[in-house]
Design a protein that fits this description.
By secondary structure, this protein is mostly helical. The protein contains five helices and no strands. The protein starts with a helix and ends with a helix.
């Protein structure tokens, strides 16, 4: 069963994904020529992506603190590959939030939005592979 910390952490990353989707939708609107709606969607998506990824950091730390001791020790140093994967994945997730924010504020949501979405997907894959080791 999930704890409240885990649910909040997962919901925050769901919010980050939703923000990324708004940025990608803004790119589609921009391509169709609806620039005002594209800028508005991109701005809101960028703020959502950045805010959710930053807010997920303390919940991720709390989630680590609630793990059983052997699992926590493995992720925090006993297994170098798992530690590197967790650190790299967490950093990529926060970077994806900032790239999403920049994509939303730049007025060019298409290239930045795709890059932010790709970073978030890679971060998820790295963290899951580190946790599954």
């Amino acid at each position: 069963m999930f704890t409240a910390v885990q649910v909040v952490h997962l919901l925050l990353y769901a919010g980050a994904v939703a923000g990324g989707m708004l940025i990608l939708l803004a790119g589609a609107r921009e391509r169709r020529g609806d620039l005002e709606a594209a800028r508005r969607l991109a701005r809101h998506g960028g703020f959502a992506m950045a805010g959710c990824t930053l807010a997920a950091v303390p919940t991720g730390v709390a989630w680590l603190a609630l793990l059983p001791a052997p699992v926590r020790e493995r992720l925090l140093g006993a297994d170098a590959a798992a530690t590197i994967g967790l650190t790299l994945g967490s950093g990529l997730a926060v970077l994806a939030g900032f790239v999403g924010l920049l994509a939303g504020l730049s007025g060019k949501p298409r290239p930045g939005g795709w890059f932010a979405a790709a970073l978030l997907a890679v971060a998820l894959a790295v963290v899951l592979s580190a946790a599954a080791r």
